[in-house]
Amino acid sequence: MSEVASDIVVAGRLRVAVHADDPLRRTALCKVVAEAGHIVVDLQDEADIVLADGSRPPEEVRNVIGLGIADDRLRGTLPREADARQIDAAIRAVAAGLIVRAPARENGFGAMRESEGHALLTPRELEVLAALAEGMTNKAIARRLEISLHTVKFHVESLFRKLGARTRTEAVVKAAERRRNEIIML
Amino acid sequence: MSFSSDVLSQLSNAISARAEAAKNAVVAVRLGEGRHLTGLVWQSGVVVVSEQALLRGDEFELVAPGGSTVAAKVAGRDASTNIAILKTTDSLSAPAFAAAEAHMGTLALAIGADGEGGASARLGVVNLVGGEWHSRRGGLIDRRIVLDIGLAHREEGGPVFDAAGGCLGMSTFGPRGQVIVIPHATLTRVVPQLIKDGHVARGWLGVALQAVAVPDALRESADQTGGMMVMSVVEGGPAAQAGIVAGDIILSVDGISAHRFRKIARYFGGDSIGRKADVRLIRGGAVITVQTTIAERRAA
Questions:
Q1: A124, closest residue in chain B (CA to CA)
Q2: pLDDT > 70 fraction of chain A, expressed in percent and rounded
């Protein structure tokens, strides 16, 4: 591991494969990786790091950073709620041959949380969010949803406010986190 | 002062005796690569473990008290209460322990398996005790019990005892590394169901729901601010049979607001199976009510 690590220019761009069961989450993580200056590659391709959300890719022998995976064998483990800065730091650290751990296990057996009505997203905001996750521009969103550009901007601002996000990527990431608490199977 | 009358020595000896007695209550569940977690020997041939800590798989090797190796099969899992059970192929005798109620501030002794047939002990106090609560997966936990104890991952799933040697329940990790107890009462309620069916019976409509805000224009007629939007409908399920489609926003089930997850989780307990329920929902801008018959959730 360390011999390999010494060959890598850690400050540079790294090849990162993203594995996530939830497609929306995968899209969000790919954006985080790309915006941190790394190259997103397919799982089959050569990669310096495999970023895995929720479950570990079976028989993966490369350096895996797990999000929300309680497995001490992984080179990197982060809580599911890890932000873009932490994910980038973990990618660089594990590529440099270090082991990354969050301070405590964040995802223990916990209580159900209920969201207050005012903080919930409206059905329309969810549609706008799905479009944001695909990387669509406001103009493209307006065309798809057949609403005015002004209305799209209004929804995007409302999304930012409700999610406490400052950028579109942050909104998509935060919404994916919230979905885990807001989706139930009945 | 003689040795035997020294209070601290007596306390230490008493704790050591309790820990020694608890050895027979734990097994190590091997996870591979030298790792293990702890199982609580619940009854003869039945081991209870923390569901969240148990890897996917059907068969595990256990290290029984004394160090012999025993094969075991996963006989049931319930993520909603964090309880899984393993049945051993060879006999494994269970020590008898009385159930005990947790009280804030009392001593608690958590026992883990050392992986070689022995035990490890952790001592602390019961940090807090509260009423029943619902887990993220909707399971009902009879008491909130938090311990002031640090636990290694390999010790998760072992029994927790009070000063009198009564069993409070099974240790597990809560959020942020907090050590909590799945109460004895919850184990007593859930384990027999898992032994019998391999899962816990729950009511089911066959829908995936996402919490949404009710659009402003419909707030008045809906008379509530939040609802659950139907993201998908399971073909042939009760909701599908009642004509519920993706995009509907469910407001309430038999008068219970749908975004009140805890109340909904309680309503959809095992006793709800077969019940007729009125589902109030928004479809195409109007509030309508459809009747469904709750079915039993299919095994996951």
A1: B215
A2: 88
Do residue A185 and residue B208 have CB atoms under 8 angstroms apart?
A: yes
Question: How much is the pLDDT for A89?
Answer: 93
Q: What pLDDT, in 10s, does the model give residues A19-57?
A: 998 888 899 999 999 999 999 999 888 999 999 998 888
Q: What is the pTM of this model?
A: 0.71
> For residue A85, what is the DSSP state?
H
* Residue among B175, B204, B225 whose CB faces A117 most closely: B225
What residues pair up with B279 in beta bridges, in sequence order? B253, B290
Nearest chain A residue (CA) to B51: A109
State CA A51 to chain mean position distance. 9
| Pick from B133, B210, B247: CB nearest A111 | B133
- Answer whether A94's CB lies under 8 Å from A76's CB: yes
Asked if A179 and A133 count as a contact pair (C-beta separation under 8 A), the reply is no
The tokens describing B280, both together, are 């109030």
- Other beta carbons less than 10 A from residue B58's beta carbon: 8
For the segment B224-261, what is each residue's pLDDT rounded down to a tens digit? 888 999 999 999 999 999 999 999 999 999 999 988 88
Task: Using alpha carbons, list the distances in angstroms from residue B212 to A89, B38, B88, B154.
Answer: 34, 40, 46, 40
Which residue is closest to A122 within chain B, CA to CA?
B213
